[in-house]
Amino acid sequence: MRPTNSTSHWLNGRNAGNYEGMDFAHTGIGLGTHYASALFWALPFEAWLAAYPPRTPSGILRNAVAMAAVAGVVDYGIVPKRLTPGWELTLSRKSIVWAFGSLAVGLAAGALVTRHVGRRTA
User: Fold this and answer.
1) How many other CB atoms sit within 10 Å of the CB of residue 34?
2) Separation of alpha carbons 121 and 60, rounded Å
3) What's the pTM?
4) What is the DSSP annotation of 42-89?
5) Which of 48, 92, 93, 118 has the highest CB neighbour count under 10 A?
């Protein structure tokens, strides 16, 4: 649970990443913060897709990778240290890259599902 707990570092300080158990103060806040950040990045991604709709699933994936890269630059290069995801407290750089890759996959999957459902209901 340490990577999830580390996301609560904005409230619990740097030691949040050292907490291995599960509780609301670390795990609950970490999960809530992570969920809110995923929604935060999904909003501009969906706006981008609405303004410049890609024609293929690979175009959606390409745009999702670009948005995840922007998220990584913003999260670890622009925002104050206290507002980063906090994963650097427990994960290697390689694992953090994989985490942002997972964000890209999630953004693309969500966009593909909503477009598929939208076509079926239209």
Assistant:
1) 18
2) 21
3) 0.87
4) HHHHHHHHHHS--SSHHHHHHHHHHHHHHHHHIIIIIS-GGGS--GGG
5) 48
DSSP summary character for residue 8: T
With both helix axes pointing from N to C terminus, report the angle between 29-51 and 57-73 in degrees, rounded to the nearest 10: 130
Distances (CA, A) of 96 to 37, 53, 69, 83, 113: 15, 29, 12, 16, 26
Residues 6+ positions from 86 with CB-CB distance below 8 Å? 6, 7, 8, 9, 10, 16, 17, 30
Q: List the structure tokens of 84.
A: 């980063």
